[in-house]
Amino acid sequence: MEDKNTWIGFGLIAAIFIGFSLFNRPSKEELARRQHYRDSIALVQSQMAAEAAAMAQLQEAADMAQTAEVLHELNVQRYGAFAQAAVGEEAEYVVENEVLRLTFGNKGGVLRKAELKNYKAYGDSVNPLRLFGPDEVAMGYTIALADNKMIRDTKDMFFVMQPVQTGANGEQIVTMRLLSDTTGHIDFVYTIPQNDYMIGFAIRCVNAAGLLAQNYPYMEMYWNQTVPQHERGRKFEERYARLQYMFVDGDIEQLSEQKDDNEEENTRIRWIAYKDQFFSTVLIANNEGFDGAQLHSKVLAKKTGGMKSYSMTSQVPFDPTGAKETGFRMYLGPNHYNTLKAYDEGVERQDRLNLKELVPLGWKIVAWVNKILVIPMFDLFTSWGMSIGLIILLMTIVIKLIILPFTFKSYTSTAKMRALKPQIDEINKRIPEEKMQERQQATMALYSKAGVNPMAGCLPMLFQMPVVMAMFWFFPTAIELRGQSFLWAPDLSTYDTLFSWNKDLWLIGDHISLFTLLFSGVNILYTYVTMQTQPGADGPQANMMKWMMYLMPLMFFFIFNDYAAGLSYYYFLSLLFSILQTMIFRWTLDDKKMLAEMEKQQAKRANKKKSGWAAKLEQLQKEQEARMREQIKQQSKQQYR
Predict the structure, then answer these.
(1) Backbone angles phi, psi at 554, to 5 degrees
(2) Which of 382, 366, 344, 562 shows the shortest CA–CA distance to 479?
(3) CA-CA distance, 50 to 173, in Å (whole number)?
(4) Which of 265, 328, 428, 584 minimizes the number of CB atoms within 10 Å of its CB?
């Protein structure tokens, strides 16, 4: 019963709530009024927000106007009549000739990007090679103004590019103008020839004498540049990337290419070069040169994409009256020997730039061989329109023919000593090791009677070493090899790959070069052939020497694995020809006939007085033997005292 009453109570309560809700429900007119009210509130809030935004914009505009006015006043205090050039919008302008694409920026009025149209960076077959870009170069000047004002860095000032003009010889003249509020201005003038990597650059003052400080006949300047990686072989490119500079007297110096380096020079400098393996940016000061410089070079990490970071600060002459311009030249191009050498043609010795020294050709005697033999020969064969692979083959043949007399002389000397080996073995059996000096004396006496000079085999090798070393220096720096393919190698200026992987391994790196592998294999064969032609020796030392001779080709593999494929290809060919030469010599020179001829010579010399090298050597041996006997006597006397 109680449960029934409970449920009836819940039902009555629900009915009361439902009835109350229906009775108090607003009419349609009431609902419409409420919606209109809400819409009005939203509209008012929207209008208030719009009015607040408008007020904020007006306030911001007022603040900006006030800030601009304040900024202008500050610029007037800093830059005087050049205050208007302190503000502006950045813009870039591209100018091209047949070999260069140059991008100038109005902020700073300087060259912001230089591209070489006839070259490509490794891995990019579309775009011209970028010598430097906007984020990789900075150059600016400090200019003293009248009334103790100063432009501390022209890179912060906005220049106005004038219409490009054409000179009498077809050169383009680009003028970046730093305007003042008078008729006076400062021009950065660039002269770009039709087909040349060397451009002119001059700073000129026009009607600005009253705007500039007349007691500052110089400008401070700086030049910073990062050299990006252009080649496949970073190791080699890094080795040849360096900051070089030439003094006014012609001496050339450089900063270290292996580590960070700094130098402060107080002597006048003619030019400063930021270079890598195959390309350079060179700033050349006309007239009096740079008044000394602080130079810096920094090696960059591989992940940065750059090779080296270079910087310089210096002073250059500056005429604030405008009567004389501050002149420069800038070379933006390849390290091509003949191209750089051409800038000194018809120039007096004291005025030569010697930019060709940017191409490393080795030590003095090696460089001399490269300049008078290797480069002219390479240029001759190149002019015939042949492939680089065939040119290297022809160069190998010519060089082998040039050093053939020295090679033959060396082999003949070795063959004579080999023919005398039975007699030398007899001397070694007859005279024990304890009497080494007596054994050597007997051996030298035998050589003297037979007319054999043991040094005759070494001297010819010394004569041909400059030629061999010249080729070692030439191939890694010859830009003509860059991008030239041969057989499986797509670029003879860098290493070729048989196998490659993503991680550097100790000694071997991240690849195996097939040309280096072939060169090392042929080197082992050449070592074997050479060992067969040697007189030979017995004992542990001789065996160790043989093993060392066979170990050298293996060491060469690890050394040359990163070298240019063109160099490994040349050494491969050179060793093949050397093996062929050795076999021909052995077929044409009979040891028995040679021994019989030497015995005849011995008989002729038996009754003749010794002279020349043999007599001198025998006299030296006797003197040494006498000195040793005297030393033994003195030691014996001291021992028994």
Answers:
(1) -65, -40
(2) 382
(3) 53
(4) 584
- Neighbouring residues of 221: CB distance < 8 A, sequence distance ≥ 6: 139, 140, 141, 142, 313, 314, 315, 316
Strands 218-228 and 306-317, sheet pairing: antiparallel
pLDDT in tens, 331-344: 999 999 999 999 99
| 392, 573 Cβ separation under 8 angstroms | yes
pLDDT at position 37 is 40
Distances (CA, A) of 517 to 393, 500, 549: 18, 14, 17
User: 169 to each of 165, 166, 173, 189, 286, how far by Cα in Å?
Assistant: 12, 8, 11, 16, 21
CB 194 within 8 A of CB 279: no
Q: Which amino acid is at 409?
A: K
Cβ–Cβ under 8 Å, residues 238 and 307? yes
Q: What pLDDT band is residue 541 in, cutting at 50, 70 and 90?
A: low
What's the rounded Cα separation, in Å, for the pair 534 and 531?
A: 5
Which ranges constitute the DSSP H helices of 534-611?
Answer: 540-560, 565-588, 591-605
- Give the H/E segment covering residue 388: helix 388-402
Strands 185-192 and 198-206: antiparallel
Quickly list DSSP for 460-523: HHHHHHHHHHHHHHHHHH-GGGTT--BTTBS-TTS---SEEEEEEETTTEEEE-HHHHHHHHHH
CB half-sphere exposure, 375, CA atoms < 13 A? 21
Please choose, from the candidates 210, 352, 205, the residue with its C-alpha nearest in 3D space to the C-alpha of residue 284. 352
pLDDT digits (tens, 9 = 90+) for 232-250: 888 888 889 999 999 999 9
Q: Which of 553, 556, 574, 240 is nearest to 407 (CA)?
A: 574
Mean pLDDT of 607-613: 55
Q: Give the SS3 label for residue 239.
A: helix
